[in-house]
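REVIEWER CHECKLIST
Item 1: Sequence provided? yes
Item 2: Single chain? yes
Item 3: Sequence as submitted:
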Amino acid sequence: MYQYLMAYWEEVMQDDFYTIAIDGWEAGKQWEREIIKGKKGKDGKTAKDKTVEGLEGIMGKMLPPDLLIQEYFSEHWEAVTDFEAEIENAKAELDEMQQETEVENGIFSDLEKVNLTSVKGLLKQRKAEKAPKEEIVVIENYIRLSEAIPSFTKLIKIQKETIEKLVLELYPTLSENEIKDLVINKKWFKHLEQCLYEEKERMSQTLTHRIMELTERYKVTLPEMETALNEYETKVKSHLQKMGWQW
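Item 4: Structure as written out by the authors:
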């Protein structure tokens, strides 16, 4: 645990202590935008610095935006994770559907490329040809899922913009006691508690693995081994005697 503490001190806590010593706890209200320095191109010119917009670009001096979201806007963030889950589910369904219908004589087998545009064209064609209802349902479902993904992506963007606004409005309103609680209990202690939990899990897994090794190694008891040895010894002596060996 001491090693974890010293590593975290080097990475985070040391800077926080220096900040508190210089600026006080009020530094917890401060934040800035991340700026990516422009790289020098082959022509020798350096590109312009790029400001990182959105939640990803917010850098709290002591309090990262993720911590504020977790403590104050967790319900808002749940909507983001729900939308992301919907996107993953839609992609999984589309992949499964595509694999099932791209096989020989499958619904999409005649398409050069399966995408939203081509499938919409196929739907129009198959409706004109009076295709079976089951086939039409599959094609329409593909279109519905394909159109849902950008819709959920847009909702995620809107929700993140809302959360970003809430976070930026929160920073300057934090009291000293709130900042102390967030930094000490929710940031420092929380990280060290997680380190302790992970270390306990690692030790538990190591111990379990070692016990299983010992169980496998000693599953045959010494009396059982001695009995087996005596039986083999008797058989060997019997074979040697039949071969004419005497001792």
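Item 5: Key structural point noted by reviewer: The longest strand covers residues 31-33.
Item 6: Recommendation: ____
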